[in-house]
Amino acid sequence: MTTIRRLAAILAADVTGYSRLIGSDEGGTLARLRTIRAEVIDPAIAAHNGRLVKTTGDGFLVKYGSVVDALRSAIEIQAGIAERNAPIPQDQRIELGIGLNVGDGRGVAKRKRDGCWASWLRAAVRPEGSTPWGQPGPHQLDSSIARPTWCR
Asked: For the chain, which domains are there?
């Protein structure tokens, strides 16, 4: 059997401070999150040829055929969320931590009993110490992302 290898980019995202937000206003948080997903996240995924492959209560994983598409989608999502957060008090804002990973996607379709995408997720986790998403400032990119996106 021949293995088909494809380069894939994975975007992993989760809500920063989700437990705190749910604890202070569960209904409002879930309603705002549904609205953000429908009006910002899903359109950005579709506009950049992504495929939503897994969702959790406060996060999601998206597969892209291009690291450039993944990066553009992440930027669009963060810009849309930042715009929506502007009039909202800091302690009620929904902010996403987003990480990107690129690599050989041959194992991407495999599912395991303990969940799928584990190695991709570990590699895509946003580095600690970078500027919080949605705020201007330096963000960290793994070299596997920075190299393919340079000058694009």
From this structure: 7-149 (3.30.70.1230)
Alpha-carbon Rg for the chain, nearest whole angstrom, is: 16
Q: Are 150 and 97 in contact (CB under 8 A)?
A: no
**Residue found under tokens 């929904």:** 94
Contact between 60 and 6 under an 8 Å Cβ cutoff? The reply is no
Cβ neighbours for 122, distance < 8 A, ≥ 6 positions apart: none
Tell if the pTM clears 0.85, that is, is over it: no
Read off the amino acid at residue 126: R
> Is residue 116 scored above 60 in pLDDT?
no
pLDDT above 70 covers what percent of the chain? 64
The answer to whether residue 44 scores a pLDDT higher than 50 is yes
